[in-house]
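Data deposition worksheet. Section B asks for the primary sequence of the deposited chain exactly as it was used as input, without tags or linkers unless they were present during the calculation. Section C holds the resulting structure in token form. Section D is free text for depositor observations; keep each observation to a single sentence. Incomplete worksheets are returned to the depositor.
Section A, Depositor: J.P.
Section B:
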Amino acid sequence: MLSYQFDAPFVFAEVNSDVHKYKLNPQTGKTELLSVDTTYVGRKVVTKSIGGNNYEPMDITETYKYPEGSDKDKETMKKAERTNKLRMQDDDEQEIPQANVEMTLETPVEPVMIGHDFQMAVVFRNLSEDTRTIHGFLVGSTVYYTNIQRAQFKQESFDITLNPMETSRVEVVVLAQKYMPQLGCLSNLRFVVTAKSMENNQDMTAMQIVNLEGPELLFSIVVNGLSLFEQMSGPAQVNQEVFVKVEFTNPFPFSLRDVRMAMQGPNFMSYREKLYSEIATGASISWMESCVPTRSVKTMIYAVLDCSVLGNVQGNWAICIQA
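Section C:
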């Protein structure tokens, strides 16, 4: 398949690319290869599950690639390098330096809500029998979904001494008051750490993305003045007026201005939009729209909320319309 032009090599690269990390020498302009990460790209490929109303994601990674590190994977990569000349020539001439110290960047396991503080850690592991003195520098930035930087919000340097075979952690606190002014309608934070072992001039680098989760939108469906949870006669009916209510509470210590909300339901409700000039701190809004379904269908209602300082607020609700 890789012999075909255009899409085949592109898709292969999208799920099999390696991440090469370099150090630039400002005096000579030359680069030095620090490390190669073969697992960062293509960890998981997902799609919508089969079935009109099954909204769980389906993992289809093995449809596009062999398991990472398997014999088939190694064989495929060698063939790709031969036929498509994927390997950079400069890299063939460089050897990756032997690591005496390993560095990893640990991000929160649990989801981080927009507007909340959280903690991270830079973890160092000394693999040598000698003491190592580490000087490090961390940069935090808000980024677009393409990983392009929008703005920096955090810079922090640190020094640590590692005894032989010791593992040590540098705790990093990320404050919402620092990243929120630079976040805008985005929801991704990128952290890059660079460090040097002073005794043997070993350079290290690590990067992680933290995806922030927005506050919830609450849904309720009302038929004949009763919520469907209270209605004993079952779901909504064709040709019967249905009200959809979406609620939101501002959890942030600042007002949201020029807020746009929208909702839509395929085969159920046409696109609707509503604007709010301001939602004060702690204030709640409730928006109700009506429609008369004309088809018997199982579908979803989707709603989104956004403004200049907040994005990634969305929700959905399943609804069944009976004949």
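Section D:
The domain at 97-213 is CATH 2.60.40.10 (Immunoglobulin-like).
The chain has five helices and 21 strands.
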